[in-house]
Amino acid sequence: MSFRIRLATSADAALISEVGKEAFYAAFAPDNTEEDMQMYLESAYYPEKQLAELQDPANRFLLLEKDQVPIGFAKIMASKLSDNEVDIDDTEFLDKNLLLISKIYLLPQFVGKGIGNLLMNECVLIAQDEGFEGIWLCVWQKNERAIKFYEKYELKKIGMTTFLLGKDKQYDLVMAKLF
Predict the structure, then answer these.
(1) CA-to-CA distance for 33 and 104, rounded, in angstroms?
(2) Nearest-10 Cα torsion for 90, 163, 33, 115
């Protein structure tokens, strides 16, 4: 079993769209209505959108492959908390130069097997190598598995933000860590 992480290119737009749609649906469909899920997936995951994101120099996608088959990805970008619509309780993080882990998804058959560590470790390594002061992300407040995963990396809850899934306004925890 061979894993590899590589920087995605524009040619990977359809793959990222497919993996994102499948991973998101598997993770969140049990706790949301089918209508809200379909509305969100149709607006968030289609090849043209992922192509535009890939072509935006602010974004980087790290594609995780197992035996040369895509099984997950992370989307990262430089982003200060103060430039986002988030409510932060811990102002220590506000004006720091942080790397945002915007998405980190695995296909459902790979969740819970320690494989997500490969992507997370790569994101942390990139942040450190590029001189970021830390990392931050948002995670649905009901996603206990993901919250525990991020806590293993010593990210702490520092605030809240909202996320619209279809028509359902949901709440995400903002988690961060300084190096």
Answers:
(1) 22
(2) -70
Confidence of residue 72 (pLDDT cuts 50, 70, 90): very high
Calpha distance 170→147 (Å, rounded): 16
Residue 148: φ, ψ to 5°: -65, -40
d(CA 55, CA 41): 20
Q: Name which residue leads in pLDDT, 105 or 94.
A: 105
* CB-CB contact of 64 with 91 (8 Å): no
For 91, the token pair is 């102002």
CA dist 51 → 2, 56, 74 (Å): 27, 9, 15
- Give pLDDT tens digits for 11-31: 999 999 999 999 999 999 999
Residue 109 burial class via C-beta count within 10 angstroms: exposed 0-12, middle 13-18, buried 19 and up = exposed
